[in-house]
Amino acid sequence: DAGVIQSPRHEVTEMGQEVTLRCKPISGHDYLFWYRQTMMRGLELLIYFNNNVPIDDSGMPEDRFSAKMPNASFSTLKIQPSEPRDSAVYFCASSFWTGGGHIQYFGAGTRLSVL
Amino acid sequence: KQEVTQIPAALSVPEGENLVLNCSFTDSAIYNLQWFRQDPGKGLTSLLLIQSSQREQTSGRLNASLDKSSGRSTLYIAASQPGDSATYLCAVLSGSSYGKLTFGQGTILTVHP
Q1: Which residues of chain B have pLDDT under 50?
Q2: A106 vs B105: CB contact, 8 Å cut-off?
Q3: What is the DSSP secondary structure assignment for residue A25, as one 8-state letter?
Q4: B59 touches chain A (CB under 8 A)
Q5: Contacts of B74 (CB under 8 A, 6+ apart)
Q6: Core-most of A108, B95, B100, B102, by most CB within 10 Å?
Q7: Cβ atoms A108, A83 nearer than 8 A
Q8: Is A42 left (phi over 0), alpha (psi -120 to 50) or beta?
Q9: Given a cut of 70, is residue A84 above it in pLDDT?
Q10: What is the dihedral of CA A104, A43, B92, A103, to 10 degrees?
Q11: Mean pLDDT of A88-112
Q12: Smallest CA–CA separation between A106 and chain B, in Å?
């Protein structure tokens, strides 16, 4: 398997524009996670899905952020409208539950810069 | 609310030294604890996972221990090499947050030749 695939790797946009980040999880994994990483706040969980259903979105900063998982092989994180404080690296991760926990496999991330 | 703290924030050592990274967590009701490695500009790679019923896990030169009652874990790296230079993150899966990992801020490790 190619691992978790994220696109684009880098995104530069202007304030107010819509941004869509994409993620393809590892085949067979039933959990998908979206994280945001900044120097100030570290790694924060935004939302996670189980079997394509959102389970916990308490980390989504505000209504400008939305995430979808229309099928088991694809998820999107959308920011509309984007603001400079949204600049960060966004990671997607996937895993499967083994009973004693699960190991999350991370994508390479999308570095977002909002000017 | 679970909080994870890692000490030190940064560490610089000469090649060949044995070293210890520390992680502490506030809520001892955990399913497991994981140690990750992050290289600059890359995603996270899982190094070791310790179940709540286990005391330690080993992989090559890495050994991770868990003392759940005191809320502590250590990652021991033997005979460090320049290729070990990276950020090491500790994360816990809490009993009250099924599926949700809480991460520490990480320790930036530099191993110089």
Answers
A1: none
A2: no
A3: P
A4: no
A5: B20, B21, B22, B23, B64, B65
A6: B102
A7: no
A8: left
A9: yes
A10: 10
A11: 87
A12: 6
- Which chain B positions have a beta carbon within 8 Å of A101's beta carbon? 31-32, 49, 51, 93
Specify burial of residue B74 (Cβ count, 10 A radius: 0-12, 13-18, 19+): middle
pLDDT in tens, B73-101: 999 999 999 999 999 999 998 865 566 78
Average pLDDT over residues A69-92: 96
The beta-strand segments (E) located in B1-113 are 4-7, 10-14, 19-25, 30-38, 44-51, 56-59, 62-67, 72-77, 86-94, 101-103, 107-112
Strands A42-50 and A31-38: antiparallel
CA distance B29 to B15: 37
Plot region of A114 (φ>0 → left; ψ -120 to 50 → alpha; else → beta): beta
User: pLDDT tens digits for A44-63?
Assistant: 999 999 999 999 898 998 89
Contacts of B3 (CB under 8 A, 6+ apart): B25, B26, B102
